[in-house]
Amino acid sequence: MTKAAAARQTDAPADESDDLLDPSPVLHASIYDELRRRLITGKIVPGVGLSTRGLASEMGVSQMPVRDALSRLAAEGAVEIRSKRKIVVPPMTPERFDDLLHCRLLLEPDAAVKAISHINAARLRQLREIDAGMDAAIASGNVLGYMEGNFAFHFAIYRASNLPIQARLIEALWLQFGPFMRVVYGRFGTANLVDQHRLALDAIEAGDADALYRAIAGDIADGMGLIGRNSWN
């Protein structure tokens, strides 16, 4: 290390000194993917402030990849960076809700229909196992387990379509409603909702694309309806 480099390292502020060495692109990508997954499955919830330092400490990395990931997520509308020490999930509004619902209904039932011919017996069996795990999670009050299962169920279908760009667009939507879905599931559960997943499984088994489209659209409407009734009223 040169004298100049040593001086820079010694004089650097405590909250930035760990950024002098840029972590690898692989680490940047893994931190970004982890934070995306936390948002999608509701591990990050509305009303709870985040900080780059806190997340970096929790994940055992420097602040640089965390800061980079949060900047990317802010560009996607998943978080708002209000200061270096305060990052939050943007509030849900009626306008934002309507936009998200409209886009989900455009993309997700279509992705499911395009996937139906690619879902063989093994994939269908996997979907049934995921659905059974979700039932067990709800029965035991494991909201996080239910959220993770819900994500796994939907994307096991969507990714079977072999349309990665469409699946990525859908993920971007899930980033924005996942935190709110976690809150309303935790408060109100899903006991009064129609089991649209079971209808979707039956439609896949029968090769009925129209029924699958209706089941996925119904599932979106039911889940988003919980958010709409309880996020700003």
Give structural notes.
This protein is mostly helical. It folds into two domains: 3-88, Arc Repressor Mutant, subunit A (Orthogonal Bundle); 94-230, Up-down Bundle (Four Helix Bundle (Hemerythrin (Met), subunit A)), CATH 1.20.120. 69% of the residues lie in helices and 3% in strands. It has helices spanning 3-11, 25-40, 52-59, 63-75, 94-115, 121-139, 143-158, 164-188, 196-206, 209-230; strands at residues 80-83, 86-88. The chain has a two-stranded antiparallel sheet. Strand 1 (80-83) and strand 2 (86-88) form a beta hairpin. It is globular.
Low-pLDDT parts are 1-20
CATH C-level class of the largest domain is Mainly Alpha
Query: Biggest sheet: strands, sense, closure?
Result: 2 strands, antiparallel
Quaternary status: single chain
Kindly identify the CATH topology of the largest domain: Four Helix Bundle (Hemerythrin (Met), subunit A)
From the 3D coordinates, which CATH architecture of the largest domain would you assign? Answer: Up-down Bundle
| Biggest sheet: strand arrangement | 1-2
CATH superfamily of the largest domain: GntR ligand-binding domain-like
Rough outline: globular
Order of helices and strands, N to C?
HHHHEEHHHHHH
Q: Could you tell me the strand content as a percent range?
A: under 5%
Average pLDDT confidence is 85
What Rg is obtained from the alpha carbons, in whole angstroms? 20 Å
Give me the count of strands.
Answer: 2
Tell me the helix content: 55-70%
Terminal Cα separation, in Å? Answer: 59 Å
